[in-house]
Structure formats: C-alpha cells, structure tokens
Amino acid sequence: MNGQMMDFPLTITSIFRRAETFFRAREVVTRRPDKTITRYRFGDFADRTRRLLRVLQDLGVQRGDRVATLAWTHAHHLEAYFAVPLAGAVLHTLNLRLHPDDLAYIINHAEDRVLIVDASLVPLLERIRPNVKLETVIVIGHDGTVKDAVDYESAIANAEPATDLPDLDERAAAAMCYTTGTTGKPKGVLYSHRSIALHSLAICLPDALGIGECDAVLPAVPMFHANGWGLPYSCAMVGAKLVLPGSHLDPVSVLELLEGERVTVAGGVPTIWMSILQTLESGQRSYDLSALRHVLVGGSAPPASLIRALDKHGIKVLHAWGMTETSPLGTVARVPAALVNASEEEQYRCRSKQGRPTPFVEIRAAKVEGLVPWDGQTMGELEVRGPWVTSGYFKDDGADRFTADGWFKTGDIATIDESGTMEIQDRSKDLIKSGGEWISSVALENCLMGHPAVAEAAVIAIAHAKWAERPLAVVVLKPGASATADDLRAFLAPQFPKFWLPDAFEFIDAIPRTSVGKFLKSALRERYKTYRIEA
Ligand code: AMP
Fold this sequence. Notes:
This protein is of the alpha/beta class. The protein has 15 helices and 26 strands. 28% of the residues lie in helices and 25% in strands.
C-alpha cells in the first residue's frame, strides 16, 4: 500500500518562490570590482531574476539547454543561479581559474549555448571564443567592447518580469559543474532540482551549518566551486542575508566584510583561513568578529593547529568534507553528544576529523579484500551513496568510479571509527606506499603545520629503490622563522611510527595551488620527480 502524501516536486522554483514571498526584505550584499559595496533585497533579486528568466526565454533557451556562467561571487551570478534552472535549463558554472584550453574543452563538451560573463573576464573569454560555439554572450558590466554581446543590465531593464514559472520535473537537470581533477579530462556532474532541494535542506540542519533567517552568510568560496557549496540556494530557502565578496578573497577584504556585515556563518577552503589567521596574528588591526558563529572549512583538511589558532581569535571552525560529485556536502565534524563533556584535547581531535555523514548520505570504506571494519585504524577507499551523490558523469557513465552495488568510489582513503566518524587519510594517489605499508601524507602535513615556524607543508612520495616510496616534506617557513630538517623530524617523532618520518625536507617559498586553492601536489611531484633518497 502506498502512502497518500502529495507527489510534490522538489525544485529550485519552490526555493525561489519562498525567497520571493517571505524574505523580500532580507539583504543581498555584493562587493564590486572596485571594492565598493552595493546592497539590494531579496524582493529586488526576485524581480530581476524573473526578468532574466524572460531574457533567456526570449533568446530561445529551451529546457535542458546549458547556460554557462564565467563570473565571480556577486548578485548577478545569484540571479543566474535561479533564472537558468527556473527556465528548465542547466546552469553551468565555469571555473575561471582554469586554462583557456580546458575551458574551451568543457564548454564544447557541455555544449553550452549561452554564456553569461563578467566584463572583467572578457579578456579570458576572448582567448576561448575562437575554439567554442556559443550562440549568445551576455556581459555583466558591458562597456560595448564585445561584438554582438547582450548587455546584462539593459536586457534586464527592457524585459518584463516573467509571470509564469514553468512547471518542472524534480528529476530534471538544474546545474552542472566539471570536476577539477588533476588527472584525465574534466568530467561533468549534473545536479537535479531534487538533489539541490534536498541538499539545501540538509545544509540548514542544526548539526550541519544550522543556517536560518537571522543569519548573515558569507561564501568565501567561488560560485563555480561545487555550487558555491550550496550556500546560495540554502540562504534563499531560509531567508539568510547573503554577503557576496565578488573577486576579493584576500584576507583583509574578507575580514572587513565579516566585521562590517556582522556575518554569522562563512565558508572557505583552509588556505583562505590560513591567510586570515596570519593577518590576525600580524596584529596590524583588530576586527570585531563577535557576530561570527562558525566558519565552514572544507575542500581539504584544516590542520588541528589551524582550528585551535582560529578559536583563539573567535573564529570557530566547523569542518566538513565533500566533493563536486556529492553536491558537495557529505560529512560534518560536529562534536557528538557523547563528547560534549570530553577534554578539550579530545574535542579538537574530533573536530579535525571529517566527521559523520549528514542524513541520507551513507558511507563505508573498502579495500580489495572487502569492507574495512569501523575501528578508526584500518584504511580503505571511502565509498558514499545518497540522493545528492552523482550516479555517473555527463556523457560518461564513469563505470570505474562505482561499485557493483551502486556506491560512488571517492578516491579518498579514510578510516571510520566505532561512532561512524570518518577521517580522511589521503587521496589514493597521494598516499605514500612504503614497504607495503601506507603512510598518510595528510597526517604528516597537518602535524608539521602545527610547528611554530611552519606556514605550509606538503608531503609527497619519492620513488625509492628499497621501500618503493618514501616521504619528502616540502615546507614553507613563516617570515623570519627558522627550523632545520632535524628540528622538524624531532617535532614529528613523538606522534608517528618511525617509518612514517620523512627522509628529506625541502624548504621553498610557496606551495603551488590548484584553481580552488588546494595544494597542487602534482606540481610538486613534477618538480621533485628526479629527487633521490638514498636506500
Ligand atoms: P572537489 O570536488 O574539487 O571539491 O574535490 C573533492 C576532494 O577534496 C575530496 O575527494 C577530498 O580529497 C578533498 N576534500 C574535500 N574536503 C575535504 C576535507 N574536509 N578534508 C580532506 N580532504 C577534503
């Protein structure tokens, strides 16, 4: 016997109507390219989004068509986040830090018909344009220099707001992002209305980010990185004020917004928070961060030392794990009820793990021999499933990334303990395999970054005649600080088995970064590919 509840579609349209109906007075704040701040309300956002929807319809955008954006984090981009899916089309956010050749590949692969681009990114577009087939380019802040382009502002001003919002199937594609994989061609992940609606709800749960109407949320994560981590949709759903930093992700700009807009929740990769910490520690100026409840940190693992140091400045880290393929939120490291009275030490240990899955996301870890026990010790490849986990890639079933029983193989190596708390040990390709044993580069890096002289550290595998691979630590020292290889090895020694300790240390000026601010270990591997560690 079936239940009798309505089969009501879970769509972005519903999120939009809610923002438009209940939260008209809530603010959207944007930092412009010239650093000035503009603000409007969700009521204005709704009116402009309906106009953009009409513009897209008049351009002939059909259901299922891909409409790309090449844009920073601002209110216009937010309008596209909604207008494109409301039209039944697919919002394709392009990573503006990619090489033009990769962007051309992605645009062609996705078969984007329309592109919405920031005027400041037109020079990048010009390098791509000869290699792609785009029917229409819409420029935000158009100064007339792009031939045949539509000017975003005048198109909006001239369009009547669309009054009827199309009825949409919750399973229809609403958005797509390409993975920023470091090997092979980028792959497209297609989100549905349903997956985005459910993911938006999950983010707002009290044991996830706990976002509500009274919050002011600053995504210090670009809107092209995994749906801006879902924050734009969640904030519209609950009516939280959105504080959009534009292209200004330097520490002082972010700190100014956190203080000036009384931000309660922010999100960003560890490198953003590392630079914010350095700015705060330089003591040049103090900031009133008393409104800030917590900052979501994910994308790579924040070292425990970073979590502690930020706490001292009133910035409470909420650590989460996710992937483009998981929308992205997968797990959150909240201190569980059983540990609320545990020692500070134990709570920090817990908060620097990746945590437990959000409702409806399930996790397990496997080795070739089978599933690994939840003992907090045995490493295996993390596998996930859930309603906002991808089941394939665009034009590619990605068969090698799925198990026979339908779980997604993340490529992350993890342990899971008795309580279900997951800890990422490494990407499988970054794991160091020494004499048949696995060494976690992440654990070594995180410990090294707790040394007072160390600003950044990355550990990579170096080929070794006897052990197959051995660890090399690449270290950036803080300005004016000093430490030798022996100092650092002695610092690590009490915490790790002897065979884990890096054989060599190299000191460099900066660790190369990926397009979304993670350490680019493939560049380090390339740089040190002829490095020799004596047997
Ligand atoms: P992307 O799809 O580019 O966001 O990359 C996803 C990958 O980032 C994951 O598979 C992990 O390897 C890594 N990652 C994301 N969040 C974390 C985290 N909290 N700790 C460690 N690694 C993470």
